[in-house]
């Protein structure tokens, strides 16, 4: 499994109507242990998620099924592979 940091930028105010469906989708992924953290930036221009997936292809499938993507609420999505090495939330190896 690989960790990814996903940052999004909203397309205007479209996200407001889509947000409930987006959050329901992410809650399902969080319940499965896929989304570790997620939330909007304070200035409401976008958000960030920390997600664990088998590989980039699996991640892209998850992100493409997000209502924000499907309903055109995003202007931009940036994905970076991330290798966390320390922190209170990391499982012990």
Characterization of the model:
The chain has a four-stranded antiparallel beta sheet with strand order 2-3-1-4. It is globular. It has one domain: Alpha-Beta Plaits. By secondary structure, it is of the alpha+beta class. Strand 2 and strand 3 (46-53) form a beta hairpin. It has helices at 15-31, 56-64, 67-70; strands at 2-10, 35-40, 46-53, 74-82. It has three helices and four strands; from the N terminus they run βαββααβ.
Tally of distinct domains: 1
Mean pLDDT: 95
Please give the radius of gyration in angstroms.
13 Å
Q: CATH H-level name... which superfamily?
A: Dimeric alpha+beta barrel
Number of helical stretches of at least 4 residues: 3
CATH topology: Alpha-Beta Plaits
Q: At the first level of CATH, what is the class? A: Alpha Beta
The CATH architecture is 2-Layer Sandwich
Strand content: 25-35%
Distance between termini? 14 Å
> Helices and strands, in N-to-C order?
EHEEHHE
Q: Describe the largest sheet.
A: 4 strands, antiparallel
Helix content: 25-40%
Beta strand count? 4
Structural shape: globular
Which structural class do the helices and strands define? alpha+beta
- Major sheet: order of its strands? 2-3-1-4
**Low-pLDDT residue spans:** none
């Amino acid at each position: 499994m690989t960790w990814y940091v996903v940052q999004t930028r909203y397309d205007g105010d479209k996200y407001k109507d889509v947000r409930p469906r987006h959050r329901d989708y992410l809650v399902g992924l969080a319940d499965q242990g896929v989304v570790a953290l997620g939330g909007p930036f304070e200035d409401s221009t976008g958000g960030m998620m920390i997600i664990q997936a088998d590989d980039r292809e699996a991640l892209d499938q998850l992100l493409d099924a997000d209502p924000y993507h499907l309903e055109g609420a995003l202007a931009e999505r940036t994905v970076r592979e991330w290798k966390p090495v320390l922190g209170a939330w990391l499982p012990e190896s």
